[in-house]
Queue: 3 jobs
Job 1
Amino acid sequence: MSLPSLVAMPTPLLPLVRRAEEMFLSALRDLSEQALERFDAWPAERREAFGRVCAASNFVIEQVSRDPEMLLGLAEAGLLERSLNLGEMRSLLDGELADCDDEPRLQRTLRRFRNRQQVRIIWRDLTRQAGLAETCGDLSDLADTCVDLAYQWLYARHCEQHGVPIGARSGKPQHMVILGMGKLGGHELNLSSDIDLIFGYPESGETQGEKRSLDNHQFFLRLGQRLIKVLDAPTVDGFVFRVDMRLRPYGSSGALVLSFNALEQYYQTQGRDWERYAMIKARVIGGDQKAGRELLNMLRPFVYRRYLDFSAIEALRGMKQLIQQEVRRKGMADNIKLGAGGIREVEFIGQAFQLIHGGRDLSLQLRSLAQLLTTLDGQGYLPSTVVKELREGYEFLRYTEHALQAIDDRQTQMLPDNPIDRVRVAFMLGFDSWDEFHARLLFWRERIDWHFRQVIADPDEDELSEGEELVGGEWLPLWEQDWDEEFACRQLTEAGFRDGHAACRGLAALRSASQVRTMQRLGRERLDAFVPRLLAQAVEQEDPDLALERVLPLIEAVARRSAYLVLLTENPGALQRLLELCAASPWIAEQIARFPLLLDELLNAGRLFKPPQAPELAAELNERLARIPEDDLEQQMEALRHFKLAHRLRVAASEIAGTLPLMKVSDYLTWLAEAILKEVLALAWRHTVARHGQPKRSDGSPCDPAFIILGYGKVGGIELGHGSDLDLVFIHDGDSNAETDGAKPIDGAQFFTRLGQRIIHLLTTQTTSGQLYEVDMRLRPSGASGLLVSSLSAFERYQAQEAWTWEHQALVRARVLVGCPQLTEDFERVRAEVLGRQRDVEALRQEVSEMRAKMRDNLGTRITQAGMADKAFEAEVDFNLKHDAGGIVDIEFMVQYAALAWSHQHPQLLRYTDNIRILDGLEQAGLMTGDEVRLLQDAYKAYRAAAHRQSLQKLPEVVSGDRFHDERRAVMRIWRELGLR
């Protein structure tokens, strides 16, 4: 289609124009009299264009009012009335970056350049001086230029700091390759689009030129994180581009940057159909262009198959169905990109031919949709009349998209619902009224959707849709009609419920709940569509009564947020997983009911039942927080809590499904805590330093940060369970007397105390997503009466001179969770010296026995050691897994006793903090027999597995007395053989 025509200014927009002119004139007056004169010298055509642009775009009004010199400069340079030459965008930014000497200035320069170019591009688009191709091309060039020049600037500084990355195989310096995906890759970017990127680098190796080298992966990972922050982080000047990295291998949970070999291996072995679709538009936009071309050549066989690949149609159908589900779930029928007859359908038509025939017909291997449509016409894949309609409809939709986004520089494809913005959109598209525009829009959407159905839609789709409506159909009368309790109970019982009356009462309670009674029509329709499906799947469960009982509170909790009901309706697999997990664990049911956002985790079974390893956990959390402004503490705290909730659910689900054994459950929960603590320490440190300045180390050097968090107990022993609290101790190596160097200086002791308080605040504060962890600090020197944070020297002095034996027992399970590497080494030395000194074994045995007896008396089931033979193994006497004789604590005390008694002769006993590996060490040192070690390890694992199951069932760590007889007897026997009482 041709450019949208110019129409007369609608009356409702005149006040906007007057306000904009007044704001601009006021800003000019504040600038100088000469500025006013420069504006007065504008020709009439430009003044008229200024009014048209301001009538349409709040963004332009805001920018030129904040910086009137920007618009005057653009006008005087002639950039409002002419197209940019090839390479001119890059030259303009290159010149502005010439004197840029620090990262804040880089961010400021990029953002102001972007804003200036956005004003220029919007001006030319709205005044019909630029067509769609020029507008999209300029926006894509702007993104290319900003990304690459920001990368080149950061790369040079990164090399100065860490050395130059060198390939291990080639011996040559390495650069990153930045792939632009989606519309950016196709050179079709819209006015307020995010940019989809993938980062890669040619080969592994390490940096050279600095004392401390980095491997290439770490180098480019840190560089990529800095680049995203420079582009994406909002500042007073806005942002450059929102960066989306989710198209990379493994999505948000994958590494931020991968080597070429890793990328090739992933796409060859794990690449999915939608990734083929995405990779069609991949283009090198930054970094090493030559290496980037090599990478794309490596990946081309994944995208384009050598045979006629008609399976691509089915893949695109599946993608379209997912999009339709999302559109329905979020009520986005008015979305001109994703809705029926939208931009995405035109793209799907073109890419269907590319995926099917592109491996054989090289002319189809194009990124630009406009060029692709021309090729489909010229090569006879589609009739010319169809291509003409698709092109004109697509251009109309893209012009509409630009109009929607020009208003507020906001990424939206939703039609406006307020009158003034509707007038604006119609005006920008050359229509006298919204009704005229909307009628034309509907025409094009209907034509596009018709063509889409001819190419991609499933011929059996209508029949399937009718069938889908029948899912749970037998339950519709029971739910939607007036209750006939007798009939309802009989139907529920006949379907498989043990107690039809209880199920009936549960459903009746849901119907009468206030949240349901006050639902709006759309929400109630969604609930009515969902409940029959819920019942249909519930009766398929092993225990339908339990599944329904535990899921109904969740349904009531989310009734007013009915998008969750649509999610479960549209994703039967997610609903099935919800029922299975809730039936298996009331703890999981309660978690999801309290935090319904966890329902999203049920969508991907592969991810749900396969939690990431420790490095991926840490990388994923770091990336999430990197996208949040540093000063937005509330959002950071919510992100931490959401991350913990999601990953804790994955671990629990994996344990229930049997895909994660006991030891790995504790590993994952411990890794999760460590990843969170690392980020909490970083947040607390940044906040405290910003307020008070940097403290000094004990040797006078700057701290960054000379601080560690010790984990005791379960977290120290890598044995965390569901719902475990954290036993923590804080240690610093700062100068307690030296003042910090900030605006509000305090001495070092105060600084580290406030740092510790900040950490505890971040961990324990209740938000809408709960708290991160309960924290117990009573194991610090002198307990609750001691300092919150100790210096390492004070900690060492206390442990050597004042600590009780039970504190040294606790120290056996203590390890550094996060913090300064040097201080970590110093602590490990102190721990080894304290625990490894020679002790009076008889006195030690006496003290350990007495402490154990006190704990058993206070916390166990009150059966004395002497009475164990008579009473402990009676079925009616419960067994406390942790505290009763022969239980978990007995094994822990034996291990701690052994470490304290013999580590002076066998220092390897102090290498690990978990009981299983310390027991292995006792066997290797010949201090216990293999049979004894195996008995203790097996008993310990069995007890912990039972404790985990009790936790998931929301039950105390107490089981029937008729369980674990053999294990308890073995533990008590070895206890006595060690001479403990």
Job 2
Amino acid sequence: MTGETTVRTAVRIHGRSTQRKALRALLDELPTHGGQLLLAGEPGLGRTTLLQWAARSFRAGPVLHLGPGPGRAAHVTAEQLLGTLRTATAAAPALVCADDVHLWDGPARAALGRAARRLHTADRVGLLLSVASDRAVDPELAPLPVVHLDPLAPPRAAALLDDVTDGAAAPAVREQLLAEAEGNPALLLALVRRLSPAELRGHRPLPRPLADAGALAETAGGAPSGPSDHARDLLLTVAAAGQAEDGTDVDAGLVHDALRRLRPAPAPDPRAEPLPEQLVLAGDRLRFRSPLVRRTVHAAATVERRRAVHRALADVWEGGGHRLTGLLHRSWSLGGPEPRPASSDRLAAEAADRLAAAADGAVPASHRLRATAYTRAAELTADGARRAERYTAAAEQALLAGCPERARSLLAAAREHAAPAAVRGRAELVRGVTELRDGPVGDAHQSLLLAASLLATEAPAEAANAALAAADAAWAAGDLAACLATLAPGPPPRTENPAHGTDGTEGTEGTEGTEGTDGTDGTDGPAATDGARGPAARTAAVVRDHRVGMRALLEGRLDRAGTPLAQVVERGRTEERPEALLRSAAAALLLGDVDAARSGGARALAAARQLGSDALVPKALEYLAYAELRAGRHPQARTHAEEGLRTALRAGQGNTAAHHRAVLALAASIEEEPDVVARHVTAALDTARRHGLAQAATLAQWAAARADLGRGRPFDAADRLGLLVLPGPGRGHFAVWRLVVPCFVEAAVLASRHEDARTVLPDFADWAGFGADPQAAAQLARCHALLAPAEHADDLYRRALARHEEAGGDFERARTALLYGKWLRRRRRPREARGRLGTALAGFERCGAGVWAAQARDELRALGAAPHDDGAGKPNRLGRLTPQQLRIARHVAEGATNREVALALGVSTRTVDYHLRKVFAALGVRSRLELARMVGQAEQAQDAQGARGVRRAGHHEKTGAQH
């Protein structure tokens, strides 16, 4: 017996749905025509597993497995290989699999690549190859279509771990295994095999380092070694430099300077010499093609050589004035990845103190770098309590950097040591915030309540923040009683500024909180001096006002909620900290001040990006998206939510991603995209049900029902919406269901459920009276018009339209005009109906509400009026574009550069580049000038048509009045 854990084979493939879809498409087409695919991914990501899955899935013919074979492959020509493949498929289609083609010799790879290019679709050969992406793809294989494998997402990796261990791993062990594996399934299995059953269950300490050289080399297929001493030093120096920068690219000049210190003799400049195949040079930055290989190179080096490289890097960084990074490399030069600290190890203790002090200090540094520095300081600290404190500080910084899995692993390391109540409270605060963003919000609520209790004595300001974050968790869960209990009055927090705070901001419409963990005042610095008491006092006042205003709002004391929430908004106008700006935006949304919410959200987004607080970016985009929705600007809401979804997924914030999907579903529900609505609704509900997100679930269900209503299916819409708005235990989220009432009333009236519609109007009237929703007063008049007898409906519709003019918002105004036009048509007042319906059509087209515009066109046709088409009857080529592509095309047509477009839309330049290529292809243009001309012509035609529509509407109203 070796003491290792027995790892059974995974029962199923975890994740890889995108890759399997591509493989399935290849297999499905083989009976009629052939194709090729190249699977590429770093070692250990499961290329072989996918090839085996494809081979098992293919039933239409034989499966051939190609291998080079000793002494034979180099002599096989492309013609011979091609003939063999065609012979094999003479009677039936065939799937040909070749794994690890990068290991074949050069002539064999060349022959395979040439044969692949000469295959015709009529040959009915499916060629499926795999290569490791830790080196450049051979030119012979580069033309083949590629399917990339990325590391598994945390939930998929966790499912794999539970699958192969039958859930036997202790929670703390599980978190550290997942963090060390970094989504690489083979490495995860290698780490599990390394542990004894007692270690896996948490009964014995884990080996350090957990991912040692053996496990890494096993996964990577060996430790790469360059062809010369210089190449080996270059690989190790780039790998060591990446330790401080989270494995990202590093400055080539810095590497060259370190190599000169490492070897006094002149060394070649890495920017001029041929690089080892594991490295890529982009501009002046060097990086490994594979993060796994980078880790393997560093771990497999001898201790002496690794220390020497870190000393050289420390000299370079310190010489350049980068003290924190220099200290970090200096600490690594003292020993291996984690030397066993001892009280007598004076050098280690001094290095730990210097690192922690520098990480606490005000020197510019990213949250990732601070997390690494605190982690290393903890590893070098002998005292258990101080070690736990430094691991907790590292977890706080990792969370701010958008690395929740790393934060969880650091918290697990902190739990191994006894610590004071305040440190345990900070750890629970980080854990609660992490769960609030990606986990069951009920668990988050309990962790945050515990944090508030543990912090109450020594850090009352942090305790108040934790309590407010706990209210956010209850809000997200739709638990009104728990939310009120958490917001109950208590002793006001003192104004001292703790070194590490978590600022929980409550979300409007029930959004969960956004919390900063770098100090209550939003800085990265140490405990505040007397000069910083002003910002701390302001923070305490904001927390108090937000808490009071929230509670008053939830208790229905609307008159008492406005003043404290307005004070939160007002303080945000002079703030620069992203946490305070997020709180201001949240309060503005509660008050219905969408302009202030947009301003606060936009400023919070800019501040978070400038500070590198990746964890706060998705929440800022969520607030912006909600503000645009409340203002009726669905295309802008969609833009923010699209970017918010991407950033949330990158930051491991599944709950925030669910909110963005709900916004995307709501935006798409007014467009002619039922499949998009269904996709986002399904994804949002999947997370909402697993994590107890009542608010996201309500929004997603509202989107599905509104899509039904827009497509003329009122019975389905009324059934869905009735569950959300009618009294009962299944009612929708307490802060959202009132927003759904106007949709329900419309659907219920069309479905002849008038009494149900009348049941919910009193509550909606109270909501409209509060003034937090700029559209509510007009919507209330519209609802009364739908339910009123004929002699009163006319006046109510006119009153609703007048209120819409005051509130703005094309979509809701057009909906009222559409309903009024339908009512007029059924009362046989065709000329008035034409005017209202024409106005509705113009409004829907203006805001991109295609599915509702179709209703208006149908009504106009029923009147015998031919609705106008884009381009005066000619097809509008811009209609081929997606909403995002159309937005980008319009910006470019106005002369904006790709970078300016990216800044305007809040997306990356790479995203703009990608969509612009799609735009050029869809429109058949070859230059920005041609694009500008086409957009200008289309918009001129649209403006002319809009003017004609307005003239027609005015004429119809005038003649209708005369008659």
Job 3
Amino acid sequence: MAESEAAGGSAAFTHLGTQVRTALSERGFETPTEPQRAAIPPLADGKDGLVIAPTGTGKTETAMLPVFDALAGEERFGIGALYITPLRALNRDMRDRLDWWGEQLGLDIDVRHGDTTQYHRQQQANDPPDVLVTTPETLQAMLTGEKLRKALSDVSHVVIDEVHELAASKRGAQLTIGLERLHELSGPFQRIGLSATVGDPGEVGKFLTGGRGCEIMEVDVGSRLDVRVREPRITDEDETLAGKLASDPDLASHVRAIRDLVTENESTLVFVNTRQTAEALGSRCNALDLPIGVHHGSLSKEARIEVEDAFKAGELDGLLCTSSMELGIDVGRVDHVIQYQSPREVARLLQRVGRAGHRSDKLSSGTVLTTRPDDTLEALAICRRAHEGLVEPAEIHHGSLDTVANQIAGAVMDFGEISARKTYDLVTRAYPFRDLTADDFRDVVRELSDNRILWLDEELDRLEKSGGTWQYFYANLSMIPDEETYTVSDVASGRAIGTLDERFVVNFAGPGETFIQRGEMWRIAEVDDEESEVKVSPIEDPTGEVPSWTGSEIPVPKPVAGEVGEVRGWVGEAFESGESRSAVAADLADRYPTDEYTAGEALDPLEKQVESGSPMPTDERVVVEYEPRSVVVNACFGHTTNQTLGRVLSALLGQQTGSSVGLEIDPYRIELDVPRGVSGPDIEGVLRGTEPEHVAGIIELSLKNSDALKFKLAQVAATFGALQSWRGNRKFGRDRLLAALDDTPVYDEAVREIFHEDLAIEPTGEVLSGIRDGEVEVVLHTEHTPVGIDGRSSGRELLAPENADASVIDTVRERIQEDRMLLFCLHCQEWDRTQEVRRVPDQPECPFCGSTRIAALNPWAEEVVEAVRADEKDDEQEKQTKRAYQAATLVQSHGKQAVIALAARGVGPHNAARIIAKLREDEDDFYRDILSQERQYARTQSFWD
């Protein structure tokens, strides 16, 4: 920075009035921070702005000092400024931080959110504060209240904290229209956005202001990072710890590395990518009596506040946390951040490590602890990209139709009646909806009218409130899908422990089963579906079944996976030219922030790949490796592109063969379980022969039979008012729902949302174009390779020992033995009987004809029996009949063992055959394989058929 610029920056506080400058002196703010130097002058001048700077560099004051300056001494009845945060916990923090300024400047600061008492709300309506800290959803409710509308008419400033978080969600899309509704009420107001990381500031600025122009004031975050990537080396101590933790030495080394780093620093945040990892590591830390707490979104509010306060007070040295701690909740000073396993995205690394070292002269210090080769290479790529400032762009929800429906109802609530034209103009002023067509808008209005959410008078171009408008709008203040959760309560104390997702409860949570929450072990005593409550009691067992949280895996972006592919490319060439592993490791450690041991461990499968003579998959080379019934497409394209490409392959191969194709993906591989006879050339044929422009159509057709679309359709239908409540309409089957809503805006939005959140249509088309044009090479290999096989463990987090605890296996065994199965003779087709698995003989046979060709089916599978007995069968009955004969073949060959495997949750004949075929030393391993398959089913059932 030139001297004149530095001098101008240091004079930033001179742009503020005397009263604010006096308060600054009393607060000890003598010198502005870098974001304050850059942002205060334009913000004090009333300009809209986006402030991007690391957490802890005074962003809140950067935004609020000019706002306070504008408000101080003004006479007004209503609210002068809104401070909008995405989390209620941030509301609490902001209130604490802003109160002091309010007292000094004679301004009233208050908070309002969903838990604010009715009495307090009434007080705010009668005597509005000068500054109100609130959430996006609460603003929606406030816009419809008569007294509050009067209070909001004085708003002249809106500050949106963590704007990147809102820009990438439907909550944010809803807020942008909400701000336009506020604009109708109050006139123009200053808009200020705050964030620690933004990949595309220009787009987020337009999101914030509706494209009206926005000053971007960005402080470089990447250059302030001091992050190292390392894989813990197993020591003699880890062998001892493994016994104490009931784990393998690998996991013991990870826990020991966390312990050592926490000990070396005064206060450490340990970020993990999933809640189950937080719980599992927390239980191990608890076993070692380490002063480390657990913090994630499924813990009760009281439990979260308890550990936040303990960490802030120094009673805890570390906090194991998920994204719940990314958004700047105040837990005091943080010296160091540990990221356990790759953070998956540059933005997450910057958000998380940026929480450490909150001083203008200090770097943010962090360590990424990795667990396997892909994990290490991915983390290295992310660290390099972070230093370069290559942050992922915000995935704005453009044109989400259920958001439009929600906000049309909001506008009708605001005005009582409003012209359709005016509502359309209001909605399309918001940046995510600028391209919404009049036809799409009209379809949404008609859908709302058909659902009796509002009255539509097409002749007069008028929308009016109906009897259902109020109830609909307040039931849909939030765009977060309403999914049922179960409260977890301690039987002895009645204390709330946390929550479990409904899907986990349905699939796994039966009486007697164990799981981890708050880093402690619990055994389920009772599941109360009426009260949505799981009653538990604590146990001392150090291992157990970890909750299968609904929270989806953080997707690795295509550019990150591509850089991993680039590294594979030059490493492969180095090994092929005869360089030693130590020399290549030294080169990798020189290029990236890691040590030679970690680099060497990451190179292991790559060195083996070259030694085996196998082609190296890179960012420009797809390697299709295949053996009978099993194909791995090595593709360095990231999660969503591989998900999309895998779905195209699965759909087209299934169509060609008439059989289902199993699919599992990670950022670097697409694994396919294919019918007999399908091999590498068939995969290559699909990759070369699929037209890029057909990807969306292929995917949409394949979605028609998937649970993903039906589940999403139910959620979207609820936000359109087509269903009063998805949970309350379970008996209205999903297939019927699909048929009823096909060719409606509800269906269009459900498909759009799946495309937006889970898939990557355009990048997949680019990959296929690259293959067609020769820019991406496709190579076939007739056996599985070290790199391809390495993906088998990539999705498994190191949470528990390879051999699950004996009590877990006993629970699985007991549960399956108590399950009931429908036995059906396929020879005479006369005999069928439902009985407990434990009562099934070693070799079932028909009491009528003596045949051993007995199908073992789920007890509710009467339609399968009907399908087998039908003279003429439709396609679905043919499929059911085929599965019944596959199951009978297994039972005929393997007797009761096949019945047990088929009784497991989500295990069909194909997977049961794979489980049975494995060679084992004891029966426990058989049940471990069943448990592994059940867990895989629980993770993937929401997306696949």
